[in-house]
From TrEMBL:
Thiamine pyrophosphate enzyme TPP-binding domain span: 382-529
Family per record: Belongs to the TPP enzyme family.
Oxidoreductase among keywords: yes
Highest classification ranks of the organism: Bacteria, Bacillati, Bacillota, Bacilli, Lactobacillales
One function term, GO molecular function aspect: magnesium ion binding
InterPro entries the UniProt entry points to: DHS-like_NAD/FAD-binding_dom (IPR029035), POXB-like (IPR047211), Pyruvate_oxidase (IPR014092), THDP-binding (IPR029061), Thiamin_PyroP_enz_cen_dom (IPR012000), Thiamin_PyroP_enz_TPP-bd_dom (IPR012001), TPP-bd_CS (IPR000399), TPP_enzyme_TPP-bd (IPR011766)
Keyword vocabulary terms for this entry: Oxidoreductase, Pyruvate, Thiamine pyrophosphate
Protein name stated in the entry: Pyruvate oxidase
Domain Thiamine pyrophosphate enzyme central: 193-322
């Protein structure tokens, strides 16, 4: 029987599961697995990141962009601990991931040895499966089990390998379960579909609220919207499932959302709630509204809003069944008002596309991005005000993809996620979008982009503040600004120092020229956009409706955000009711 090292056996298993690359940074305790990575260099690509956190974030982004598990590693002690931030991103967004963690040799474990620590407890909270190998022979089976558990529970699996087990020779006879791994979600019951149809028929102002659980059901969502005259609102992470220019799609809801999506939930009397588990949902909808909830996980029913009809089923199957069983509805004032509200918002945003304000507003920059990005562009979006601007201003369409850190919302996500995007989609145009605060956290991963000659356009929006936190301190807690100011930094020169091509821009024309120039190089690019310090339009503290809000506050709000052309949803509802 042929022999193989324990670590080589581990890597053979992950490749059987379709893994083509692995992210990490070597350490002495990981030498045996680095040797296996070298042995299998022709079939498994190793991506050397500059911080283990970035490797874990990139592995999380792998699944977010491709639907296939990502793999990262860390050495014993500090390398293991560094992984945690990226692992928590995967945990909170329900992302399957495998983290391979090194341990010192077994004869040095639990002996107060260099970089030795009891690693399992630190991963107990973040992982759905967390085990340390007890024998070298168990490594291939444990790897297979780790991946199965990660997929089964949509979470992180952690496999810890003592260094000597990685070197040990074992029999090369393990067969994985990868070829028989299947996913088949249930169909809805006839009774639940009938109950849903009955509620839809009786509703006066129904809407659809969908999340990433509906990622394969775009056509069914649009068919339901059109047949039952239900405007569509999504979670933030579900942006792109339906193209942004679809008339009845109002965008997401909550703080980062466009105005129409943030308004509509308070006026609905029925929500068709599809594959969505956003924590903030408890604040964003009429508490008296009835809910038809579709999810594959029964634990989600009623978690964010009381549920009247629960349908445990695949979103695509459930929506198709409801569409087939229900009667078409006539246009309603609620539906027409929602569509008109979106038109008003889109027109208002577009009115700033050619603004010459200095420092530059976000609208001119995103207008250029919408024009220049291809139908297959991939966006890696960091956390902060850049999330707000992306959510409202990028018009997702065709086969564009994007990823961000959702529920965990870790700053620093953008650059390593762009690394993952380009590794997975080498022939697509890839953009990372970050604020200056977030870019500073993991900007060293530009070095990885340079090392592998990856043509990624990294855009830094510099406004010298932690803008998302500044707005919270100003609008929510009404406190003096504290700890949010950032020094003016020349990020283009920082990028050049890393080996990328750098540009500093202050106008729409300069940004457009920088993008054109960026197409002429195959190197990574860093574009430093000197952005306005003004905060984005707030949907949490809007003052637009003189039917119930203070007129002085409305005047102050309208002046602050140049919102003279915006009307509240109630305005369009009243118009629709009188037509």
């Amino acid at each position: 029987m042929a022999k193989i090292s324990g670590s080589d056996a581990v890597l053979k298993v992950i490749q059987k599961w379709g893994v083509k690359h692995i992210y990490g940074l070597p350490g002495g305790s990981f030498d045996s697995t680095m040797n296996a990575i070298y042995n299998q260099r022709e079939t498994l690509k190793y991506i050397q990141v500059r911080h283990e956190e970035a490797g874990a974030i990139a592995a999380s982004a792998d699944y977010k962009l491709t639907g296939k598990i990502g793999v990262c590693f860390g050495s014993a002690g500090p390398g293991a601990v560094h992984l945690l931030n990226g692992l928590y991103d995967a945990k909170e967004d329900g992302i399957p991931m495998l983290a391979i963690v090194a341990q010192v040799p077994t004869k040095r474990m639990n002996m107060d040895f260099f970089q030795a620590m009891n690693e399992e407890p630190i991963f107990d909270d973040v992982a759905v499966w967390n085990r340390t190998a007890m024998t070298a022979e168990s490594l291939p089976m444990m790897t297979d089990e780790a991946i199965r558990q990660a997929y089964a529970h949509n979470g992180v699996a952690v496999l810890t390998i003592p260094k000597d087990f990685g070197w040990a020779e074992i029999e090369d006879n393990f067969e994985t379960n990868a070829s028989v791994h299947t996913v088949n979600y249930p169909a809805p019951t006839a009774e639940s579909v009938a109950d849903a149809v009955k509620l839809i028929k009786a509703a006066k102002s129904p809407m659809i609220y969908f999340g990433v659980g509906a990622k394969d059901a775009a056509e069914e969502l649009k068919a339901a919207s059109e047949k039952f005259k239900m405007p569509l609102v999504s979670s933030v992470l579900a942006k792109g499932i339906i193209e942004d220019d679809y008339p009845a799609y109002l965008g997401s809801t909550g703080r980062v959302a466009p105005k129409p999506g943030a308004e509509i939930g308070f006026s609905t009397d029925l929500i068709l709630w599809v594959g969505n588990n956003v924590p903030f949902s408890i604040f964003l909808f009429n508490k008296k509204a009835k809910v038809i909830q579709i999810d594959i996980d029964s634990e989600k029913f009623g978690k964010r809003h009381h549920t009247n009809v629960a349908i445990q089923a695949d979103a695509k199957k459930a929506l198709a069944a409801i569409n087939a069983a229900g009667e078409a509805r006539d246009d309603s004032a609620f539906y027409d008002a929602a569509v008109a509200d979106k038109k008003n918002w889109d027109k208002w945003q577009a009115s700033f596309n050619d603004s010459t304000e200095s420092p530059v507003r976000p609208e001119p920059i995103f207008d250029v991005l919408n024009q220049e990005a291809s139908d297959k562009a991939v966006w890696a979006i960091d956390v902060g005000n850049v999330n707000i601007n992306f959510e409202r201003l990028i018009r997702m369409h065709d086969d564009q993809k994007w990823a961000t850190s959702g529920i965990y919302a870790t700053m620093g996500f953008g650059v390593p996620a762009a690394l993952a995007a380009k590794v997975n989609y080498p022939d697509r145009d890839v953009y990372s979008l970050s604020g200056d605060g977030a870019f500073a956290m993991l900007s060293e991963e530009i070095l990885a982009q340079v090392k592998y000659n990856l043509h990624i356009i990294n855009i830094v929006f510099s406004n010298e503040t932690l803008g998302f936190i500044e707005a919270e301190q100003t609008d929510d807690s009404h406190q003096p600004l504290s700890g949010v100011d950032l020094p003016d930094t020349d990020w283009a020169k920082v990028g050049e120092g890393y080996g990328a091509v750098g540009y500093t821009v202050r106008t729409k024309a300069e940004f457009k020229q920088a993008l054109e120039d960026a197409k002429k190089t195959d190197k990574p690019v860093v574009i430093d956009v000197k952005l306005t310090h003004a905060m984005p339009f707030t949907t949490e503290h809007m003052y637009l409706d003189d039917a119930w809000q203070d007129k002085d506050k409305i005047a102050e709000f309208v002046k602050k955000y140049d919102a003279q052309a915006l009307k509240p949803f109630s305005y369009f509802l009243k118009q629709a009711q009188t037509n």
